[in-house]
Write a structure and sequence with these properties.
With 417 residues, the protein is of the alpha/beta class. It folds into two domains: 299 residues, FAD/NAD(P)-binding domain; 59 residues, no CATH class. The chain is built from ten helices and 22 strands. The strands form eight sheets. Strands 8-5-4-12-22 form a five-stranded parallel beta sheet. A four-stranded mixed beta sheet has the order 3-11-10-9, with no helix packed on it. Helix 2 links the parallel strand 4 and strand 5. Helix 3 packs across helix 9.
Length: 417
């Protein structure tokens, strides 16, 4: 096609009217060419491998990268952010408790920048709200995902989308992990693994013990009828998907199909336009690890300050059932903490978890699983893993005072300090 023909075509597209809609002009960018893109086999040597790019995972990776560890994050989906972005629960919390901020660091940095760039508003953390959800922070889920990518890039973190581990083997220097994606078989040699899959799936692959009740909390499919989505300024409508299970691709498929079918039924019944639909169900509960320490609901509701606490948490005990949810607020002044040892599978070395799969009983987990707490866990895991690499040891053997010092250096709030 000649240059003149191309110009005529662009002008035609810009001026054409199809069904009453004008086709707008198209911007263009060029993706960087990967010289080895035709090779199906890829080998990558890194210090820290983060599996799962959700709420905890992207923060863990950014932290490890900023601390100087060569880091790779592997995510089976197409974007970072997990529950906040793909799940659509774009109102993370809680970063504050009883009139002061208790969780900060990289997670808060990302949330704050997202709100500011989007022209949003912040709740007043100095004021204790009547209801806990009043201090959740509304973020633009689409902006959040690409800001997380930018921060990974700035920290030197490599991202591999549409891939997931298929096998893991111990080596003299750490781990060898085979990850598969369409057209890609990636061999990752790493020193430390941070499992941020939500259900501790890497831990399960290693045969380490996990816990899960027979019945799990319902998931939520988020959507809007009639009202357009205004990201960063309001919540979406929620549809409970009972029996939602994130154990494997088959159960996730079943949950998504069930949720979408129910939304379609609502469209037909209520005769309203479908204006927004999240691509996946948001899952609340799955497997939890059996860690070196187990956080009990008694620990949680009494605000136990663990000797090896690395992050705060704050949220009501919040168990969703078929009868709905009746949050049980914490008593005034209570701020739960998360110990490093609850992020480490019992008797393991060179592997940690962060996020809702933290070692905890079911009721404690119903409060621990929320986004701000998971971000705090992710940052703590990123610090511990990067220090373990530098010191050629395992995270549990890194001196706690060094972990605390590094956390504070990167803006985190250390419990009791």
């Amino acid at each position: 096609m000649s240059e003149l023909d191309q110009t005529d075509r662009r002008q035609f597209l810009q001026k054409s009217i199809l069904g009453g809609l004008v086709i707008t002009s198209t911007s263009e960018v060029t993706a960087e060419i990967d010289q080895g893109v035709k090779e199906a086999e890829v080998t990558q040597d890194v210090d820290v491998l983060v599996v799962g790019g959700g709420t905890a995972g992207n923060i863990a990776a950014i932290q490890a990268g900023r601390a100087g560890a060569k880091t790779l994050i592997v995510e089976r989906g197409a974007q970072l952010g997990g529950t906040t972005t793909t799940g659509g629960v774009a109102f993370p919390g809680l970063f504050d408790a009883w009139g002061k901020q208790v969780i900060a660091g990289i997670g808060w940095e990302l949330v704050k920048e997202c709100v500011e760039l989007d022209g949003g508003k912040f709740p007043n953390f100095a004021k204790v709200p009547q209801r806990h959800w009043q201090n959740q922070v509304y973020v633009n889920q689409f902006l959040f995902a690409i800001l997380a990518e930018e921060k990974c890039e700035q920290a030197g973190v490599a991202i591999a989308y549409h891939e997931f581990p298929q096998s893991i083997q111990k080596t003299e220097k750490g781990w060898e992990v085979i990850c598969l994606g369409f057209g890609t078989r990636r061999r990752v040699r790493c020193k430390q693994i941070i499992d941020c899959t939500g259900g501790a799936e890497v831990v399960g692959m290693l045969g380490l013990p996990r816990l899960r009740e027979e019945e799990t909390q319902p998931g939520s499919m988020l959507y809007n009828l009639e009202v357009a989505n205004n990201p960063g300024h309001h919540q979406l409508h929620r549809l409970y998907v009972h029996g939602a299970d994130s154990t494997n691709s088959r159960t996730v498929t079943r949950a998504n199909l069930t949720g979408r079918k129910s939304v379609l039924e609502k469209v037909r019944k209520e005769k309203k336009r479908l204006m927004h639909l999240q691509p996946e169900t948001g899952f609340r509960e799955s497997f939890r690890i059996v860690g070196e320490t187990m956080i009990t609901v008694n620990d949680y509701t009494k605000g136990r300050l663990f000797e090896d606490a690395v992050s705060n948490a704050f949220y009501p005990v919040d168990l969703h059932t078929k009868g709905g949810v009746k949050p049980k607020p914490l008593k005034p002044g209570t701020v739960p903490t998360i110990p490093l040892s609850a992020l480490i599978p019992k008797t393991s070395r060179n592997i940690m978890v962060a996020g809702r799969c933290v070692s905890s009983d079911r009721l404690a987990n119903s409060g621990l699983r929320v986004q701000a707490s998971c971000m705090g866990m992710g940052q703590a895991a990123g610090v511990a893993a990067s220090l373990a690499v530098a010191q050629k040891t395992t995270p549990l053997e890194v001196p706690l005072e060094e972990i605390h010092r590094e956390l504070k250096r990167h803006g985190a709030i250390v419990p009791g300090k």
